[in-house]
C-alpha cells in the first residue's frame, strides 16, 4: 500500500538543526537556565532519541523544535513544519477514530472528498484497518496511541517529534508499538526525534542516542547505534549498550546532585 507520506528530498541538508540553543524561564530567584548551548542536527530520515533524567529539559527542547516556544538564544531550523505526538493521546472523545484523523487533514487543507480515503490509508498504515467508526472509549491504550500516531502522520510532515508517547503503556503493548513505529519509520522515510527517559527504549529504537545532562540541559554525550533492525529490548547488544549509557547517565545524575 502506498503511504500518504513522501520521503524527504535528498537535497535537504537536515530535518532539524539547532545551533547554540539556550532557554531560560523566569523563576522565584530570577531567570532559570533550563537549556544551555545545545547544537544538534537531525539528518533527513534519521531516528534520534533524546535521553536524560527527569527535569533535564527534554520536553522543553522538543517544544522549541515544534515551534510551541522560542529559544532565549540560538536558532532552530526544520524541514517544514514538524508533527508532534505527546505522551497522552489527546484524542477528542466525541469524535470517532477516523474523524480525529480527518480533523488533522481538514486543518491541512485536504478537500473533504479526499479525507475519508486518506484516513483509511493511515489507519491501515498503523494496523487499525476497520477502526474508522470506533469511539475513543472503545479503543485500548495502545490503539489510542496508534490513532494519535496516524493523526500526526496526517500532517504530512517530514519530521515527527515524539514526547514519551509510550510511557503510560504496559510493557507488552509498548514493545508492539516499538515494532510498529520502527516499521512505519522505515516505510515512510520520516525523520524522528523521540524523547524518553527509558534507556533501553532509546537504544531499541534509535540510530543515534543523545544524552542530556541536567541543570541546565547540555549535550553530555552521543552514541551511534550500529545494531541491525529489527531489535528487541532483550537482545544482548541492546542490553550491553544500554548498560554503558546507564552508567554515564548515573554519573550525570550524581554530578548534578539528583536522586
Automatic annotation (TrEMBL):
Keywords, ordered alphabetically: ATP-binding, Hydrolase, Nucleotide-binding, Transport
EC number: 3.6.3.-
GO molecular function: ATP binding; hydrolase activity
SMART domains: AAA
TM region positions: none
InterPro entries the UniProt entry points to: AAA+_ATPase, ABC_transporter-like_ATP-bd, ABC_transporter-like_CS, ABC_transporter_ATP-bind, P-loop_NTPase
CDD domains associated with the record: ABC_NrtD_SsuB_transporters
Keyword Hydrolase among record annotations: yes
Root EC class: hydrolase
UniProt superkingdom: Bacteria
UniProt domain ABC transporter: residue ranges: 16-241
Keyword Hydrolase attributed: yes
The protein's name: Aliphatic sulfonates import ATP-binding protein SsuB
